[in-house]
Every structure is written in structure tokens, then in C-alpha cells.
Amino acid sequence: MTTTDELKKPLEGRHALITGAARGIGAEIARALASEGARLSLLGRRRDALQQLADTLPGTGHAVVVADVADAESVTAAFAQARAALGPIAILVNNAGQAESAPFHKTSLALWQRMLGVNLTGSFLCAQAALPDMLQAGWGRIVNIASTAGQKGYPYVSAYVAAKHGVVGLTRALALEVARKGVTVNAVCPGYTDTDILQDSIANVVAKTGRSAEEALAEFSAGNPQQRVVQPAEVADAVRWLCGAAAASINGQSISVSGGEVM
Ligand code: NAP
Question: Closest Cα to atom 16, ligand 1: which residue?
Fold first, then answer.
């Protein structure tokens, strides 16, 4: 006989907030968590794109909130709106990110600060905004989308690499602080993944080197032992797993989704 509990989806009743949800990896994470029954707050900079996604997700009543994750006031306001719409936040996925490239000697202070702002400070601000709800409930999940660039170096993206190493450090420190409170904090570290960020990087290589788009893609795939780029759904599935009850012992980890590029 099937009990009501067995029919329940794994994340049913949980409020999950996903930053940078409108496209790419964030949109796939939204699909994965909504399929598990979570009620979502989709956070990003473009309301229309977020609403379009919300309208296509499984489940009903998902909320859309607009914020720049690098801006403290806008994060505070967006989290208050999300909480007012769907109640305390149980799951936070810090996915919003940008990856601008430049040789180190051409890395301006403005570029440096932009990369740290969106990738690292954004994760800090959103974690601070969500954590009180999780501590109050005695249950929570924070998943930071870092990168293999948080696990190893790459040339010409020093600001991005520094920011993503920072995200991995933040993940480890916070995981220890909340280890006895029912909250886990982990990072998922994709290798090159087939989204707009990769398409922009390919366009950049084509513009700067005169190589073809196929050659540029082959270069990005070459670092992955499987000789391919990662699919957003593969990243989303790692996030889905970390958010579930069965992953309660996984804490402070940086899980590389990169075909073995980092091991
Ligand atoms: P994407 O397609 O460019 O999407 C990035 C998302 O972040 C967009 O929805 C964007 O919103 C949002 N965003 C950017 N800056 C923001 C800000 N200041 N405030 C709020 N939202 C902001 O990139 P993606 O490939 O899916 O990347 C998602 C995450 O995975 C990033 O953290 C990235 O560093 C990481 N990652 C990507 C790869 C890869 O190869 N693709 C590899 C490793 C790690 P808008 O739509 O408004 O621009």
C-alpha cells in the first residue's frame, strides 16, 4: 500500500530561492527543483525573462523577484519579497555569476570588483539574507555554483578565478559554522558548460584570435577528459541531489561536474 508520505515529492513544501534563474544553469536548476515539488523564488535582473520561466515550470505559485545580487539593499528587498510571497527560505542556490576575461595586466580595478561583486559578494549577501530562516527551522541547504575555476587556475580570467576560489572558501567556512544546525553548505563546480557564458567566451576567442567558432569550442572541450562541454541539466542534477534529505552528510564539499577535469 502507498502512504501519503511516499507519494510526496522529495522537496514538497520547501521554498527554494535560485539566483540568476532566468537562463542557462539557473533555469535548469529551477526545472529540477520544481520537478521535486519545491516552490520557487526566481531571482534575477530581468523580470520578464524570469516570469516567462516561472510560467513554464512544474507546480504553481512560483514567485519572481528582481535584484542585482552584488547590491546589498536590492538583495535585502528581494529576499523580503520572496519571504512575503512563499514564507521562510529553506533552500538557497547561489547561481548568479559573470565571467569576464582579460589578461592580468589589462584587468582593471573595475573588472576585478565586478567579478568579485557578482560571484563572491553576491553569494555572501544572499547567504546572509537566507540563513536566519534556515537556522530558525533547523533545516536548510545552501548550494553555491562555483566553477572548476574555484578549484584550479585558468589564464586570462584571474578576477573570475579569484572570485570562484573565494566562493569555495566561503562554502567551507560557513559549512563548519552551521554544521550542527541542520544546514548544509556545498559548492557545485561545473567545467565549461553549454550556456551563454560559454557562447560569449567562444565569441571572444573568435574576435581576438581569428579562430573559427568550431576551433574555439574544441579548445574549451579539450580540458575536459570526456572531450565535451557539460550540459546544464548535469549541473542541475547535482544541485537537486544536494538539496535532498539523503545528502544531509554532504557538507563543505566542492563537487566537480567536469568529466574529471578536476579530481
Ligand atoms: P548565464 O547563462 O550567463 O546566466 C547567468 C545568470 O546570472 C543570468 O540569469 C543573469 O541574469 C544572472 N546574473 C548575472 N549577473 C547578475 C547580477 N548581478 N544579479 C543577478 N543576477 C545576475 O551563465 P551560466 O553559464 O548559466 O552560469 C551560471 C553560474 O554557473 C555562474 O555562477 C557561472 O559562473 C557558473 N559557471 C558557468 C560555467 C559555464 O561554462 N557556463 C562553468 C562554471 C561555472 P540576466 O539574465 O539578467 O543577465
Answer: 96
